[in-house]
Amino acid sequence: MQQQPFDGRVKNFLLNLARVLNMRIEKVLELYLYVSPETVKIVEVVERGGGVVGVRLAVRSARRQDTWYYVAVGKYGAKCTCEGNTLGGKICRHIIIGVITWNMASLLKHGKELDLSQLTWLRISEREASE
To answer: SS3 letters for 30-90?
Structure first.
């Protein structure tokens, strides 16, 4: 079975992520396009068993000047220092950026896509993207 081209795999991942989060694809694409060296810094890529099992990031706030939020995303959960996640327990935009970055790191380093069905914490209802 032949693998899809890289851009096709990324597109399918973003579509699946939007479906899992019950978000509009436009919102997921906005977060995907927000990522640049000026807005997101990779602090650590955690690798075990020949795959990427998580990432730690610093994500610049889109609204607050000179404010960075620190995000850790992995198989068993995610945490962000923003108020929406810390106080409200919500899956914030920074965590979604973390999941997207985790998938890209896994694709680039090992050629493996992130399996969203294994991230049960991502499927919890009553979560919403916030800043």
So the answer is: HHHHHCCCCCEEEEEEEEECCEEEEEEEEEECCCCCCCEEEEEEECCEEEECCHHHHCCCC
